[in-house]
Amino acid sequence: MAIMEISVVPIGVGSSVSNYVAKCVEVIKRSGLSYEVTAMGTIVEGEVDKLLELASIVHKVPFEMGAKRVLTNIKIDERVDKKSTIKSKVLSVKDKVDR
Fold first, then answer.
1. 41-51 average pLDDT score
2. Which residues contact residue 57 at a Cβ distance below 8 angstroms, ignoring those fewer than 6 apart?
3. How many domains in the chain?
4. Which of 21, 42, 46, 92 has its CA 20 to 30 A from that of 62?
5. What are residue 66's phi and psi, to 5 degrees?
């Protein structure tokens, strides 16, 4: 399993993009994959092929809403030596901070 962080930003639509982000999150939610919305992007767990397919779909959402330009950033973290989840990554860091 892999973890993807995705941030989709429509350009030239004004200073607030929350309506666009909300529509993107709705698409992610409908995918059935586990996800977490953060202040700067959304983190999604899944197989790499499914994550890349989802990224392509989510990237198109602002265009469907009328945006003329969209900037999408994705980061994918995949481990093959052990299972990694959003929760396990966060807990690993918190554990080290709390020592």
1. 97
2. 27
3. 1
4. 46
5. 110, -5
Task: Give the domain extent around 9.
Answer: 2-97
The Cα 42–Cα 75 span in angstroms is 11
CATH number of the domain within which 48 lies: 3.30.70.930
- What's the whole-model pTM score? 0.91
What is the 3 state secondary structure string of 11-76?
A: ECCCCCCHHHHHHHHHHHHHCCCCEEECCCCEEEEECHHHHHHHHHHHHHHHHHCCCCEEEEEEEE
Nearest-angstrom CA–CA distance, 89 and 99: 16
Please give the single-letter amino acid code of residue 32. Answer: G
Report how far residue 7's alpha carbon sits from residue 49's, in angstroms, rounded to the nearest whole number: 18
